[in-house]
Amino acid sequence: MKIGMIGLGRMGKNMADRLRTGGHQVVGYDISPESGRDVDSLQALVDSLEAPRAIWVMVPAGKPIESTLDQLGDLLDRGDLVIDGGNTRFTQDQAHAKALGAKGIGLVDVGTSNGIWGRENGYALMVGGSDEDVARIQPILDTLKPEGEFGLVHAGGTGAGHYAKMVHNGIEYGMMQSLAEGYAVLEASDLIQEPDEVVQSWRKGSVIQSWLLDLLAKSLQEDPHLAHIAGKAEETGETKWMIGDALELGVPTPAITSALYARQSSQIQDPMTMKAVSALRNAFGGHPIVKE
C-alpha cells in the first residue's frame, strides 16, 4: 500500500521505516530538511500520491496538528483519508472529522504506543473511526502492530482511539509512579544494601514483573542509583484530560491523580521517585531527561 507520512520525528520516522520494511511505499514529509524527508512541502506530498489518498500524520497535538489538518483540508480531494496518529484530544477528533467530512475527506484517529521500541517490536494501536475507513488502512495497521493476537483494537467511532490512548497513558502514570516510589523506599532504607539488585531480582517470578520493571532495571544498570538523573519528570496533557473526564463520569482515579501531582511537584523538588520516573520515560519513549 502507498501512504504519506507527515512528521518524521522520533515516532514518525520509525513507523515509516517499519512500513517500508513490511513492503509498503511511504512518502515522508517533515518541516525539517534534516529529517530525511522525501518531499519538501505538503503540496508535493499530496501530488506524489494517487487518489484516493491515505496520509498518516504524526505531529504534536495543539497548533501543529490544527495547522496540518487545516492545510490538508484545502489540498486533499473527496474520498481521501487522513490518519491522526498523534496525541490529539478526543473531543478535537470529532471537530476535525466534522470539518474534513464536509469536504468529503475521512478521518481515523489512532492512539499509538511503544515509543522508540516500536520499529522492531511493533506498536500498540488504538483506532477510532468508521468501519469503512479503518478497513481501508488495515494493511498498514497490520504491519505496524506487533506480531500475534494482540496490539490492535478498533475501539469505536471517531475519537475512540485517542480516548483509549488517553486512558492508557493515565494507567502508565500510575504504574511508573508505583515502581518509582518503591525504588525510592529501597534507596532510603538503611537495611537494604543494594537496592538496584533488589529491583533486578523482581524481574522473574514476581507478581510485579513487567516490561516497565525491566526498563527500570536496565536504567539502574546503566546509571547505578540513578546518580546522574535529575528528579524532574514532565507531564503530558493526556492524563489531565483523563482525570477531567473521569470526574465528569463519576469514576474515582486517586492513584493516577496522585501520579500527576507528583510530576507537577517534581518541577519544584528533586525526589528520587522522579529520578526513576524520568529514567523510565527515557527508556520506553526516548523522552529527554535532565542530567545532574
UniProtKB/TrEMBL annotation:
SUPFAM superfamilies: 6-phosphogluconate dehydrogenase C-terminal domain-like (SSF48179), NAD(P)-binding Rossmann-fold domains (SSF51735)
Source species, domain of life: Bacteria
UniProt keyword Oxidoreductase present: yes
Residue stretches making up the 6-phosphogluconate dehydrogenase C-terminal domain: 161-288
Enzyme Commission number, as recorded: 1.1.1.44
Residue positions of the active site: 165
Keyword Oxidoreductase: yes
Listed PANTHER family: 6-PHOSPHOGLUCONATE DEHYDROGENASE
Family: Belongs to the 6-phosphogluconate dehydrogenase family.
NCBIfam families registered for this protein in UniProt: gnd_rel, PRK09599.1
Protein name stated in the entry: 6-phosphogluconate dehydrogenase
